[in-house]
Design a protein that fits this description.
This protein is of the alpha+beta class. The chain has one domain (2-132): Glutaredoxin. It has helices at residues 11-22, 39-47, 62-66, 68-73, 76-85, 107-110, 116-132, and strands at residues 2-6, 27-31, 94-96, 101-103. The model has no long low-confidence stretch (mean pLDDT 88).
């Protein structure tokens, strides 16, 4: 099942949630500000990134700015412990599936989470629109 890691006050998180509801995509929402993250969750998310921890850190956050040096000098274990304590240092929304990760939200990129039937219908509609031009 898809997991949506979000924060209530994040516009992109709300858009991602609305998009998944609109497309009838089942998901489990994890509120990063309220719900604890397990070490295995964080490691799994990191396993799906291209650039490791840098892909999921919210560099604009005051917490990140204050502890920036920690991320450059610490072990992965120490960084994970820090993230577990300061969960809002991760970017939201994070949309996670078995083997896919989307950091942030755009409809075009989120389409990777649509079931194949939705993708086929969308391709057919696009082809039909091109043909009618």
């Amino acid at each position: 099942m898809i997991k949506l890691y979000s924060v209530n006050h994040c516009y992109s998180s709300r858009r991602a949630k609305e998009w998944m509801i609109y497309h009838n995509i089942p998901f489990h929402e994890v509120n990063v500000a309220q719900d604890e993250l397990s070490t295995s969750e964080i490691l799994y998310i990191l396993s799906l990134t291209e650039n490791g921890i840098d892909d999921i850190l919210l560099e604009r956050s005051d917490t990140y700015k204050k502890y920036r040096q920690l991320f450059e000098e610490s072990s992965l274990r120490a960084i994970i412990l820090f993230i577990k304590k300061h969960r809002t240092v991760i970017r939201t929304p994070l949309i996670v599936d078995k083997n896919k990760l989307l950091v942030g939200f755009t409809e075009g990129k989120a389409s990777m989470f649509l079931p194949r039937i939705h993708k086929n219908i969308s391709l057919q509609l696009n082809a039909q629109n091109l043909y009618e031009m």
